[in-house]
Amino acid sequence: MEIKVLGPGCANCHTMEQLTITAVKELGLEAKIEKIADIQEIMKYTMSTPGLVVNGKLKHSGKPLPSLEKVKELLKAEA
Amino acid sequence: MLDSFASFITYRLLSISQGSRLGDSLHFFIYDTIKIFLLLTVIIFAVSVIRSYFPPERTKKILSHKKEFIGNILAALLGIVTPFCSCSAVPLFIGFIEAGVPLGVTFSFLISSPMVNEVAVVLLWGLFGWKIAAIYLGTGLFVALIGGFIIGRLKLEKWVEEYVYKIQIGEGQEIAQQVFKDRLQYAKWNTADIVKKVWPYIIIAIGIGGLIHGYVPQDFLAKYAGPQNPFAVPIAVALGVPLYSNAAGVIPIVYALMEKGLSTGTVLAFMMAVTALSLPEMIILRKVLKVPLLAVFVGIMTVTITIVGYLFNSIL
After folding, report:
1. Which residues of B touch A17 (CB under 8 A)?
2. CB within 8 A of B226, min separation 6: which ones?
3. How high is the pLDDT of residue B15?
4. ipTM of the modeled complex
């Protein structure tokens, strides 16, 4: 599974990354997590950061951040 | 009912005598805290439901290829309800320009969004009454409208970084369909998220207010920075521009200044300068705007906010 966390590097984006790492660990998934800060790359998916992209599909964008449970749900749907 | 509850706690439960300074301050603190948290929860929840209808993707569509002026008005209004995190300013800006939103209209949105929002309005309403909240809302929209309109008229597109016009936007940006239950769920999250973030500032503001209310004479600062001092507004704006805070963070300062007798126009101008303009925001926007455009932006905003401050000092 390929996961991308989109965000230029604010507090929210950092939290989003931590949530994703925790969710992947707790679900025991095999996943490559990539942090995307490049604006051109982000714009391919969304203009509201932070964003979560799983296997090339945008799963979440903007505020408020999803809960850990919600992230797990989103990841499970793609697993 | 709130009043009698606050009285019950202060005068009966803690048996502090009525009319004493401590009693007055505590009564005020309890009453205001409950009132503001009730207001905050109800209004943020309502705004969040409205907000769920206007994700940035939809706002972008509404504003794309709009005529000037009408576009500026719409952008200022949409700025109130469209959610965006300050770090999204750059992708949002690129997305808007790419979708054919005129530059001036984009600026109206960027100005209004951090400055005029439900948190600012509720806090002003709860602490100073609905009139001040309405004035802030009205003039905030006006500043966003005028600021964006002038930038649009000046035709400054050449001072936007060239790469902005070249970025290709992906297809995967359709707006997710939501049923009403999802919107309520979103509103619940958003309300909890915001209340969690702003409550310490509110407690500090009311705490300061309570102390000042009971102990410091009302016209403490009025002697130096009241309406008769012509430099009060420009000084307040000049202090506010480099400072950065969201609406909630600046409220304790605003409250203290207002309670100590600074005039309404001066304080509102200060609050607008703090929320609308800031050094970190300029650094973020520098990624998409060249320095002359940034300077024009800061200049227009400073002047407009100062005028608004004077205007209110003269009529209130």
Report:
1. none
2. B219, B232, B261, B262, B263
3. 79
4. 0.80
